[in-house]
Design brief:
Elements (H helix, E strand, L loop, with lengths): L11 H16 L7 H22 L10 H25 L7 H33 L4 E6 L3 H12 L5 E7 L8 H10 L4 E5 L5 H14 L2 E5 L11 E5 L2 E5 L8 H37 L5 E7 L5 E7 L22 H8 L7 H7 L3 E3 L6 H10 L12 E3 L14 H17 L2 H17 L6
Pfam families: Bac_transf, CoA_binding_3
Main location: membrane
Protein name: Colanic acid biosynthesis UDP-glucose lipid carrier transferase
């Protein structure tokens, strides 16, 4: 669950960013540059805009962001754009442009960009308020002045898209924490807000464990107690302070866009460059080695625990245990060709179709078959946290020695530990490093590839 309320905007905000760049380029026609001068200015403009906008968080506008904060971001970006423009004309001093023209350009372009930003922001508010879409279902645990303040914020600000469902007071003898957790699952709650002042340490731990294992965002209304976590985010809803227990680096529109762009580029390269000619060859060879289809498909759990069909080149004979039993070393079900396909990871290549379709990512926690997910969810604490992002063809656990079948409880616990680290510390550079390590593993071989 995207805690910043950007779950539906990973396409919208990059699109707005593209429109901003288009506005900047069109307004640059006011300078009446020559073709060569325009060619110099535009790359500099795009580069400086991307660096400064990411640096100040220009596109980090969420459903609860006050209008005054948006205007503040616009003013900051206007100043930085002005500095960048003067820097350009200082470097290329042979381009004759007066200072008033630069000011006119900045004011005009930023004016259009601000107008676009406010129009999109307000249209999304109307979309939530009038159509009741793009909503987040929330409950509050605790009853005091702060929780009443938060409840009023939810109820009297429908444009923010928070759908208040219920308020629980654990101080009452008739309410138990177990009832709250059952209600949260039954009502498909997205976020739980807790007043720390009214919770015992044991109850806080139980709620944290419950939220992690059921993919529900847990947030706290702070008091004088301390809450320790690696990834805390402090926000204001109106005038009510909110602490988010876990924030994910990937849960910003620009990061979602960059990761999706990386997935599309890699998947298209593999599909067009390798699968386009390899698939027809294997379509002839695989049925000759054992009766059955070219592809093996299996239901697995993806982001938010949703099921999808994961595709592979078939490497085993048709068997009744395919959806329950993992492949093991010297597995009698594996064909002779299948051993080669699995050892070289060629059998995994059709999953790039899953990546292109959006069910998977190139890098992420490896998806498990549905029966194993249900089993590990009960056995391994925080196992479901790995489902906060899309599953991957390769992952941090796989390049860290935990590829292949799960032979011991230590294997799955270590895999989950690496997966959670990836989820909480993701970056594009980390993805690229994992892809590079995977490539070298395929070239030099992996003893756990069977």
């Amino acid at each position: 669950m995207n805690e910043n309320g950007t779950k539906h905007s990973f396409v919208l905000q990059p699109l707005v960013g593209f429109c901003d760049l288009l506005i900047l380029m069109l307004c640059a026609l006011l300078f009446e540059f020559s073709k060569a001068e325009y060619t110099y200015f535009i790359p500099f403009l795009i580069f400086s805009w991307l660096i400064t906008s990411v640096g100040i968080g220009f596109y980090k506008v969420y459903r609860f962001t006050p209008l005054v904060n948006i205007l503040g971001l616009v003013l900051k970006q206007a100043f930085l754009l002005l500095v960048c423009c003067f820097s350009f004309f200082g470097i290329f001093n042979e381009i004759d442009v007066v200072a008033s023209a630069v000011l006119e350009y900045v004011c005009l372009s930023i004016g259009f960009i601000a107008l676009l930003k406010l129009v999109v922001f307000n249209l999304r508010k109307k979309f939530r308020k009038q159509l009741g879409r793009d909503t987040i279902r929330v409950i509050i645990v605790g009853r005091n002045a702060k929780t009443e303040q938060l409840k009023n914020f939810f109820n009297f600000n429908p444009a923010y898209g928070f759908q208040f469902i219920a308020n629980f007071d654990l101080r009452l003898d008739t309410i138990e924490l177990e009832e709250v957790t059952r209600f949260a699952i039954g009502q498909r709650i997205h976020q739980i807000y807790c007043s720390v002042a009214e919770l015992k340490n044991k109850e806080i731990q139980e709620l944290i464990q419950f939220a992690d294992n059921n993919l529900i965002a847990l947030k706290f209304l702070p008091d004088n107690k301390d809450i320790f976590t690696k990834k805390m985010d402090f926000q204001y809803y109106g005038i009510t302070p909110i602490l988010a227990l876990r924030t994910l680096p990937i849960d910003t529109p620009i990061n979602l866009f960059l990761k999706r762009l990386l997935d599309i580029v890699f998947s298209l390269v593999v599909i067009l460059g390798i699968l386009s000619w390899l698939t027809p060859i294997l379509a002839l060879i695989i049925p000759l080695t054992s009766k059955g289809p070219l592809f093996f498909k299996q239901k697995r759990n993806g982001i938010d625990g949703k099921e999808f069909y994961c595709y592979k080149f078939r490497s085993m004979t048709i068997n009744k245990d395919a959806n329950d039993k993992q492949a093991s070393k010297n597995d009698m079900r594996t064909t002779e060709l299948g051993k080669f396909l699995r050892r070289t990871s060629i059998d995994e290549l059709p999953q790039f179709y899953n990546v292109l379709l959006g069910d998977m990512s190139v890098v992420g926690p490896r998806p498990h078959m549905v029966s194993h997910t249900h089993s590990f969810k009960q056995q391994i604490d925080k196992f479901m946290v790995r489902h906060l992002v899309k599953p991957g063809i390769t992952g941090l656990a796989q390049v860290s020695g935990y590829r292949g079948g799960i032979e011991t409880e230590h294997d799955i616990k270590s895999r989950v530990r690496f997966d959670i680290f990836y989820v909480e510390n993701w970056s594009i550079l980390m993805d690229l490093r994992i892809i590079a390590k995977t490539f070298f593993q395929v070239i030099y071989g992996d003893k756990k590839a069977y």
